[in-house]
Amino acid sequence: MSWHVHLPALVIAVPLLGAFIAPVASMLGKVARNFWLVGVSALTALLSVLLWQQVLTSGTAIYVMGAEAFNLSLPSGMSLPIRIILEVDAFSAFMAVVGSIAAFAGALFSTNYMERFSGLDKFAALYFLLTTGMLGMVLTGDLFNFFVFLEIASVASFGLVAFWRDRPEAIEASFKYMVVSTIGAMMILIAIAFLYGRYNAVSMAAVANALRLGYAEKIALVFLIIALAMKCGTVPMHMWTPDAYTEAPAGVTCLLIAVSQASLYGLFRVCFSIYGASLGSAVVPWTIIILGVLSMFIGVSMAVVQKEIKRLMAYHSVSQIGYMLLGLGVGLLALSDPQAMADYGFTAMKGGIYHLINYTMYKGLLFLTAGALYYAAGSRNLNDLGGLARTMPYTTFMFVIAAAAIAGLPPFNGFVSKLLIYESTFAVYPILSIMALVTSVLTLASFVKVFQTAFLGPAKAKLAQVKEVPPGMLLGMSVLTIVIIGLTLFPTWSLSNLVEPAAKALVNQAGYISAVIGGGL
Amino acid sequence: MIGNLPYLVVGIIFLLGLYAVLFEKNLIKIAIGVSLIEASANLLLIVLGYRTGGSIPVFTLAGKVGKMVLPVPQALTLTAIVIGLATSALMLSLIMMLYKHYGTLDVREIRRLRG
Questions:
Q1: Where does residue B58 rank: exposed (0-12), middle (13-18), buried (19+ CB within 10 A)?
Q2: Three-state secondary structure readout of A406-448
Q3: DSSP at A306
Q4: Which of A158, A151, A113 is nearest to A134 (CA)?
Q5: Closest residue in chain B to residue A314, using alpha carbons only
Q6: CATH number of B33's domain
Q7: Is residue B25 in a domain?
Q8: Which of A9, A213, A302, A403 has the fewest beta carbons under 10 Å from its own?
């Protein structure tokens, strides 16, 4: 028995420990704190990659907390799992890798970005708590545990959004986010209570195993979908996204993106692994598809008119969430029909999941470049910026890569995932892929606008003193740039090694159940 | 019928909380609404685990016991209460800071972020 079996627990335990030691490390000085912030994030990312490798080679990993043996999911004589179980299949491991890379880049960026401010011991602690919450959400196999990690992530992000508490806007954004998010979390708790009342279990696999669609399950599903869609910022419930993403420090926004993806993960885990084929192909898949199309379109049309750079990008993230909802919604539509699944459903899911990693990487990078502009030029308003390409060549280069990726220009990775979504949704309804194409064009238009106004044009007298940002920030951005370039250069490799196992794991409900119920000793 | 009364109460408290969050103009009242929603979720969990005439779920020195109340929802509720406490405290402190910045608790006047 090697130590690899403990990886699921370690991925959560390392940042949690990091959070509580961060104030102690800060007492040793600035260098120790930065070293701790970057080192623990790097270690978490490394552990996530190892976990992902292990899941790919030896199948779904389970880890039972507090049992005599780590894999004792069913204690003798019991028919239901009673302990807290971490269940890591290829999709969870994929999400953990994506999230921890974003967390690492954000941490690296924050070392220089935040050095002008005080209270950084608390910043580091909250940053790690947010990472812990996000990783816990994607790794857990237990509904109530999911709720607890969601609340850990939420409470940490309220603190981080309001980190610049001398800014009234930051407090306002944090309060708005808090009200929305707390109500969402309570709705999840009520849904869990409904499911517990029916099945006497909070383990996702046990609930999925016993699930028969009735009134209580439908109510629970409605609550879960509303709450998780609210948490990942889809359109009618997107009001908090632009505010929170804009007001949070840039490194944190990069991590908040990954956290919203963890909520999206929860939504699909509920739909695919818990409810699965019993959802049928009428109401729920179409609700998700329509939410996706609305988010894409409304998000991008709000983004085009924005003047503030981070706010513009935040509206784009609403619209990008729509692509993933569209792709995975089409996959859900085809779930109960093997023929449709083979024809277009699986392609759509691959597109959605591939877009998920692409989105987290380029959107994180875009927010980091916006943060770099703010750091260097002292303004986020596009009207005040101009001609910065001369003074900030590296930032400009990375912004161009990220902007090309989000706009879906070939050969960038955003193009590959969008193409998969276009061709599969076209098989369902051509209008869906037309909407997606229009959104993509508008995205391109608005990023051309940002590039033109902020980086090109005549140099402004006010910005004559602007210098390139310090090395920590450049390193943080280049981590994400390297991932984007890697995904761009090797799309086939990443599709077959990263994305396909994740999509297969999501479709394979029986495998998810049997890892807990059928296995054990 | 009387057995379902607690669920009705849960529903009423939830809707009251939701009403307060959606339609009240005062930040403190919104915070109260959020707390009401939390209370309804906790009450729902407790009600689900209650068995009429059941005793406390402690095995040690319990004597002869026929029925026990379910312990799991109580554990869940305790966790949820602790989380709710943290959220309420943080929310009230944010309201304090909002009052310092804006000098009012009226949501209609606290809207610098829009569009």
A1: exposed
A2: HHCCCCCHHHHHHHHHHHHHHHHCHHHHHHHHHHHHHHHHHHH
A3: -
A4: A151
A5: B115
A6: 1.10.287.3510
A7: yes
A8: A213
Interchain pair A172, B110: CB under 8 A: yes
Q: Which pLDDT tens digit goes with each residue over A291-312?
A: 999 999 999 999 988 888 999 9
DSSP state of A136: H
Contact check, Cβ <8 Å, B40/A197: no
* Contact across the interface for B18 and A183, Cβ inside 8 Å: yes
Which of A160, A164, A172, A180 to mutate: most B Cβ within 10 Å?
Answer: A172
Residue B59 lies in a domain: no
The tokens of A197 are what?
A: 């009342």
Q: Which of A512, A503, A500, A402 is nearest to A447 (CA)?
A: A402
Could you tell me how many helices (H) and strands (E) chain A has, helices first? Answer: 21, 2
Would you give the DSSP letter of residue A74?
Answer: S
CB contact A367 to B (< 8 Å): no
Nearest-angstrom CA–CA distance, A379 and A265: 34
ipTM: 0.93
Number of compact structural domains in chain B: 1
Q: Hey, is A285 helix, strand or coil?
A: helix
Residue of A122, A161, A182, A192 to mutate, interface with B, max B Cβ within 10 Å: A182
- The predicted model scores a pTM of 0.94
| Cis-peptide into A411, omega within 30 deg | yes
Calpha distance A471→A454 (Å, rounded): 21
* B62 domain-assigned: no
Please give the Cα distance from B51 to B68 (Å, whole number).
7
Residue A218, phi then psi, degrees to nearest 5: -65, -45
Partner residue opposite A175 with nearest CB, options B14, B76, B98: B98
Residue at B10 is within a domain? yes
Secondary structure, 3-state, A104-131: HHHHHHHHHHCCCCCCHHHHHHHHHHHH
**B40 contacts A175? CB cut-off 8 A:** no
Cβ distance of B90 and A178 shorter than 8 Å: yes
Domain holding B41, by residue range, is: 2-53+68-102
**Which residues of chain A have a CB within 8 Å of the CB of B111?**
172
pLDDT at A521: 41
Q: Do A168 and B102 touch (CB under 8 A)?
A: yes
Instruction: Tell me the shortest Cα–Cα distance from A183 to chain B, in angstroms.
Output: 7
Encode chain A (521 residues) as per-residue pLDDT tens digits.
588 888 999 999 999 999 999 999 999 988 999 999 999 999 999 999 999 999 999 888 888 887 777 777 776 667 778 788 899 999 999 999 999 999 999 999 999 998 888 888 999 999 999 999 999 999 998 999 999 999 999 999 999 999 998 889 999 999 999 999 999 999 999 999 999 988 888 889 889 988 888 888 999 999 999 999 999 888 888 889 999 999 999 999 999 999 999 999 999 999 999 998 788 768 889 999 999 999 999 999 999 888 889 999 999 999 999 999 999 899 988 888 888 888 888 999 999 999 999 999 999 999 999 999 999 988 888 888 888 888 899 999 999 999 999 998 888 999 999 999 999 999 888 999 999 999 999 999 999 999 998 888 888 878 878 888 899 999 999 999 999 999 999 989 999 999 999 999 998 888 888 888 865 44
Q: In this complex, is the C-beta atom of A196 within 8 Å of any C-beta atom belonging to chain B? A: yes
CA A104, CA A42: separation in Å to the nearest integer?
Answer: 6
